[in-house]
From TrEMBL:
One of the Pfam families matching this protein, by short name: TPP_enzyme_M
GO molecular function, one term: flavin adenine dinucleotide binding
Organism: Candidatus Entotheonella gemina
InterPro entries recorded: DHS-like_NAD/FAD-binding_dom, THDP-binding, Thiamin_PyroP_enz_cen_dom, Thiamin_PyroP_enz_TPP-bd_dom, TPP_enz
GO CC annotation, single: acetolactate synthase complex
Annotated ranges, domain Thiamine pyrophosphate enzyme N-terminal TPP-binding: 1-120
Residue span(s) of domain Thiamine pyrophosphate enzyme central: 192-248
Cited Gene3D superfamilies: 3.40.50.970, TPP-binding domain
Family membership noted in the UniProt record: Belongs to the TPP enzyme family.
Any one of the GO BP annotations: isoleucine biosynthetic process
PANTHER family, per the entry: ACETOLACTATE SYNTHASE LARGE SUBUNIT ILVB2-RELATED, THIAMINE PYROPHOSPHATE ENZYMES
Descriptive protein name: Thiamine pyrophosphate enzyme N-terminal TPP-binding domain-containing protein
Length: 259
């Protein structure tokens, strides 16, 4: 098994069933490995790298499940950054899989195709966590860690960079396909009790929801109906409570209710 095959297998084990992508020479061996698993992962080919990342973002928000996209380094990666930064702002579960020039030329300034200075630094600045695979034996563990970081605490996009010469190098480590232990955000019991006390005393309670409540639609609905409180969604919270629900209100209406 080589690096590319190890990463593809880990994507499969993490439930990735489609990969939004725009192939290029630095990632050719990865797509050879992807072709071997086309019965499990469907490549969805975009015409521009921005499209790959925006499709991954949209799929992550629509399904609530992790999504992934793959692009070439340099200009290809930079083309995807508008969507990647939006994914960060939206707390979306997106994996950016980015190619890289040969490992022994990184940072040398040789002017190789798609070479840019400090690509990994830029990737780290737009994600919750990012790393570069520097040895074939890191492929499986680093891909697994990428998903653990993505899903732990506040969900956010993560990045994984792989130099083009590593794709075909053999790995000698067995893949860890056991369930990932996710660190849940800490719960402040005192804050919850205080919120319940204030809600119980409120004459006209109003619930404001954001994107962090997307996975708690039923809970928000139950609380709103219990309190008979209108629910106003911020931009990323649209859809937490069905717009057709009698307690769901738009931002302008919410402003009036708040006053």
């Amino acid at each position: 098994m080589n690096t590319a095959q190890a990463i593809v297998q880990m994507l499969c084990h993490q439930g990735i069933d489609c990969l939004f992508c725009l192939p290029g020479v630095q990632n050719d061996p990865f797509f050879d490995a992807l072709y071997e698993r086309q019965d499990t992962i469907q490549p969805i080919h975009a015409r521009h790298e921005q499209g790959t990342a925006y499709m991954a973002l949209g799929a992550a928000l629509a399904t609530g499940k992790p999504q992934a996209y793959c692009v070439v380094p340099g200009p290809g990666f930079l083309n995807s950054t508008a969507a990647l930064s939006t994914a960060y702002a939206a707390n979306a579960k997106v994996l950016a899989l980015v190619g890289q020039i040969p490992s022994n030329t990184i940072g040398k300034g040789y002017g190789l195709l798609h070479e840019i200075p400090d690509q990994l630094g830029m990737l780290k600045s737009l994600t919750k966590w990012a790393t570069r695979i520097e040895h074939p034996n890191q492929a499986g563990p680093q891909t697994r860690e990428a998903f653990r970081q993505m899903l732990s605490g506040r969900p956010c996009p993560v990045g994984l960079e792989c130099p083009m010469d590593l794709w075909t190098q053999a790995t000698s480590t067995e893949l860890d396909t056991s369930p990932i232990t996710v660190d849940a955000p800490p719960i402040d019991d005192d804050a919850i009790r205080e919120a319940a006390r204030k809600l119980g005393q409120a004459a006209n309670p109003l619930i404001v929801v954001g994107g962090g409540a997307l996975d708690a639609s039923e809970e928000v609905k139950a609380l709103a109906e219990l309190l008979q409180a209108p629910v106003v969604a911020l931009r990323n919270g649209r859809g937490v409570l069905d717009n057709r629900h009698e307690l769901s209100h738009t931002l302008p209406a919410g402003h009036v209710l708040w006053r």
